[in-house]
User: What shape does this take?
Amino acid sequence: MSKNSSGHSRRKFINKITQSVLATAIVPEIVSAAGRAPGIQLLKRSGIYTANDHVQIALIGAGGMGNADADTCITVPGVKIIAACDLYDGRLEDAKKKYGSDIFVTKDYKEILSRKDIDAVIVATPDHWHKDISIDAMNSGKGVYCEKPMVHDITEGSAVIAAQTKNKAVFQVGSQGMSSLGNEKAKQLYEAGAIGQLNYAEGFWARNSPGGAWQYEIPADASEKTVDWKKFIKNNPDHGFDPKRFFRWRCYRDYGTGVSGDLFVHLFSSLHFIVSSNGPEKVMSTGGLRYWKDGREVPDVLLGMFDYPQTDKHPAFNLSLRVNFVDGTADSTYLRLVGNEGSMIVEWDKVTLTKNKSYPPTGNNDLMVNKPDPLAYERKAMVNGDAIVYKAENGYKGAHFDHHYNWIRAVRGGKPVIEDALFGYRAAAPALLCIDSYFQEKTIKWDPVKLELKKS
Ligand SMILES: NC(=O)c1ccc[n+]([C@@H]2O[C@H](COP(=O)([O-])OP(=O)(O)OC[C@H]3O[C@@H](n4cnc5c(N)ncnc54)[C@H](O)[C@@H]3O)[C@@H](O)[C@H]2O)c1
Assistant: This one.
C-alpha cells in the first residue's frame, strides 16, 4: 500500500478500510459431540478473515520470543515485518535472512519509532527494557505488543497504564493464553457455576533441562564489537562485558524477574481472566537455588502463596504456585481451579472439568449418626459421569495465533485488545512481588484495586 506521510493518518486509513473485514469476528463455539467419544466436546472458532491492507510491523528484540512473535504475527493476513531492532549483530543478520534483505535494521529502537511507515511494534526485549520502549512507542503513535511480564519492577506499571490512556494506544501484553479457546471455555464454565464456589487454585511449571533452566547458547562471536553492551545494561551497574549476562539475562535480577516474572505471570493472566480477578492482596514465597549453580542470582525452585480477597466476581480464595527447574518427573505445566462442586484443569487448547459431590458447610450431623437399616442392601447411587473434556478442534491455530490476531484486529481499529496495560500490570504485580517476597524474606501486602503496596 502507499505510505502516508504521518503514522497517525496511516493508522486512520487502515482502520477505515478494514471495518468490513472485521465484521466476521472469530467466535468460539462448541461443536456438537455427535460421533465423538462420550465426555469429549470440541472447541472451535469460526469466521473468515480477508485483509486488503498491510499492517507494517517492526520487531524490537529479535531473540527467541521476538522471532516466535514475528513468525506468528505474519501469519495473520495482511501483516508484514518491515524493520527489526536488536543489540546483537547476529540477530539483525538473521532477521534480514528471515524477513527480507530489504527490511530496515538498527540497534537503536528510537530509529524504529521515528519511522512513519511503521504502524506497530512487537517489544520482545529482556524485561528491564519493556517499560521504556513501550511508553516511547505509544508516545510515537505506534501500536504495541509487549511481551510479558509487562514491567520489570513493581514501581513501573502505572507509567505504562498512563501512557496507554493518554495516547489511547493499542497496547497488548503478550500472555497469549488469555486469547486461547481453553481460557475462554474455562471462563464460561466458571461463570456458569461448573465448579461451585471457588476456594483454591494451584499451578506449576516443571522443567529439567539446561535450556529449560535458561542456560542458553552463547554465540562464538559474542563481544563488545557485535553487542551494544552499554545500551543493554541501561541504568544498571556495568560489570564489564559479560556474554552470560547478555544472553542468559533471565538469571540476573537487573534484567530479569526470576521464575515468577517469567512463568507464574502466565498463570496469573489466565486465572485473572477466567475468574475476572484484580489479583491477590497478600503474597508469600520461599524457595532456593538447588541445582543450577552457574552464577545466577535467582532461585531455581520457587513456591508462592497468594491470598485473594472476596470481590463481586469471586469469593475469597487461596492460590499456590510453584516452579521447579530440577524436576525429575517431567516437563509440564498445570493450572487447576477448585470449587466445592468440582475442579477444572485449564490448558490453552483443553479444559478438563471434574464434577464432585458437595455438602452444605453445616447441618450434616444426620449423615454421620444415622446408622443404615440393617436389612437394606448397599444399593449403588447415581453418580456424575467421568470428567468432561473440552478439546480444541484439530487444526486450531493456538493461543499464540489468537493473541496476535486479536492485537492486529485492534491495530486495525476493531475490538479492543485482550490484555491491556491495566490487566497486564495486575498480572505482573503478584509475580514481581513473589520474587520480592523471596528476597525480602517477608509477606508482602498489595492493593490490587488501587495498585499500591500496603504496610506489611
Ligand atoms: N509469551 C511467552 O510465552 C514468552 C516466552 C518466552 C519469552 N517471553 C518474553 O519475551 C521477552 C524476550 O525473551 P527471549 O527469550 O526472546 O530473550 P532473548 O534473549 O532470546 O531475546 C531478547 C533480545 O532482545 C535484544 N535486546 C536487549 N535489549 C534490547 C534493546 N534495548 N533494544 C533492542 N533489542 C534489545 C537482545 O539482543 C536479544 O536478542 C522477555 O520479556 C520474555 O519474558 C515470552
